[in-house]
Amino acid sequence: MNIKKLLLLSVVTSSFLLAGCVSSTAQIINSESQSQLKVRSYQTKVYDNISKIKATRSTIAVLQDLGFVIDKADLLTGTVSGTKLDGYKLVMSITIRQAQKSVKVRANAQYGIKAIKDPKIYQDFFVSLDKGMFLEKNAL
């Protein structure tokens, strides 16, 4: 009978210990999810009344204007990536998704192997892209 009690006690103790780990892990995941959502909010912009092909052309032109060398551009998957080697290695990856009469553009920037989370970098990119989209949309 003592073995059964000891086994039951160890199972109950283990359950309490694991339950404590789950809640702290859940808190970490939840806080990371909130910061991920915040970063994603300034990495993404929606452009109305423009096709995916025009948005892709505009994205390529803007990256080149900003001094990037285009590494890869794929209209089918809606991805464009470029590298800027001006004393440092800055890589920009853009994803373009069609949604009815609009496109959703999401930019990701990396400095070396570290993701850039500074909103100013993305704001500056989207200011340039706004101008490029306007020119492409109006065929100027």
How many strand segments?
A: 6
**What is the SS-derived class?**
alpha+beta
Overall mean pLDDT: 83
Radius of gyration: 23 Å
Shape: elongated
Q: What percent of residues are in strands?
A: 25-35%
Order of helices and strands: HEHEEEEEH
Distance between the termini: 87 Å
What does the largest sheet look like?
Answer: 6 strands, antiparallel
Oligomer: single chain
Structural commentary:
- This protein has 140 residues and is α+β, with helices and mostly antiparallel strands.
- Helix content is 54%, strand content 29%.
- The protein is built from 3 helices and 6 strands; from the N terminus they run αβαβββββα.
- It has helices spanning 2-43, 52-65, 119-137, and strands at 44-48, 69-74, 79-85, 89-99, 102-111, 114-115.
- Strands 1, 2, 3, 4, 5 and 6 form a 6-stranded antiparallel β-sheet that branches.
- Strand 4 and strand 5 form a beta hairpin.
- The longest helix has 42 residues, at 2-43.
- The model has no long low-confidence stretch (mean pLDDT 83).
